[in-house]
């Protein structure tokens, strides 16, 4: 088939387009090459070797060192509140008073019955003294003397019973003054004047707050680490780490300025949670800390000598493995797998995969790839919050 030739007329738009296409390759060939992209700037930090304190932290609940429930020991009407709610009270201080009149009347009655019993005992004793020589002289029947002796014994028993009744009445009268069972801070009163109260009535609570207890729950594994395993001397060893200083981090993030220490472990592990309750004590001058507050107890259990550390932000986790970007010779990046240890503050202990003095990318890790050159600059750690 013969191809048809289409004539191109000079001066037409089509001719101009054809001419432009003809000159483009020559123009491109004569132009300059594309400017290469500048290396990415990343912040790097040196892998350093230092001693690292290994800390453990637990959520803690504060409670009074001693908590006393103030409940009356007798039943009656509340007539007086003698303390200021929320104030410090001493052991034995009167907090409430119950109407004492019924108890005073009971005491007076018991004293009267004691006097009557003592009088009967005196009469029975005189009868025995009178009838004893008469019975020996056979002036009266021996049975009469025996009756006198039995009457004396019964009167003596009645006197003992009357004396016990007086003591009971005296105690009940004293119990109308409801006293504090310990030194501490007295809570808000739950009983109101005029209430009929009794031994089942909770009037208030008093808590000894200096020192104050902080309860934490630790795992069985941590507990076994604390006690040092099951060595031959385990039976004679008290609760471990009693001299380990503890820090208390309060709800506002501040560290309490008085260190504490462990004081006791509960008798059993909670089978539902697998944890055991541990109590720590912290000095609390001024009673600033109060029961019910939450915080975190922190303990330094050991120090890792000459540990390799990098900032936590330099470590990337990928499907259970950990990687860092190392800047090596020629400022080229090498992605390296590492074995990580515990985290300490903003740092991460590296068990294997790095050596001291190497530089790792701490900021801009997401921008780098294996073998890509970068422009390293020193990493500036941002200030800590709060």
Please write out the topology.
Elements: H1 13-30, E1 40-46, E2 48-70, E3 76-81, E4 88-89, E5 94-98, H2 101-136, H3 142-175, E6 177-179, E7 184-186, E8 196-197, E9 204-219, H4 220-227, E10 246-249, E11 261-270, E12 275-282, E13 294-311, E14 316-318, E15 321-327, E16 333-344, E17 347-352, E18 359-363, E19 374-378
Parallel strand pairs: 1-19
Antiparallel strand pairs: 1-18, 2-9, 2-13, 3-5, 3-8, 4-7, 5-6, 7-9, 9-12, 10-13, 11-12, 13-17, 14-15, 15-16, 15-18, 16-17
Helix pairs in contact: 2-3
What this model shows, in words?
By secondary structure, the protein is an alpha+beta fold. The chain folds into four domains: 43-52 and 304-378, conserved putative lor/sdh protein from methanococcus maripaludis s2 fold (Beta Barrel), CATH 2.40.420; 59-64 and 209-303, Efflux pump adaptor protein, beta barrel domain (Elongation Factor Tu (Ef-tu), domain 3, Beta Barrel); 72-97 and 178-202, OB fold (Dihydrolipoamide Acetyltransferase, E2P); 100-175, Orthogonal Bundle (Helix Hairpins), CATH 1.10.287. It has four helices and 19 strands. The chain has a 15-stranded mixed β-sheet that branches. It has a four-stranded antiparallel β-sheet with strand order 6-5-3-8. A hairpin with a 5-residue loop joins strand 15 and strand 16 (333-344). The model is unreliable at 1-31 (pLDDT under 50).
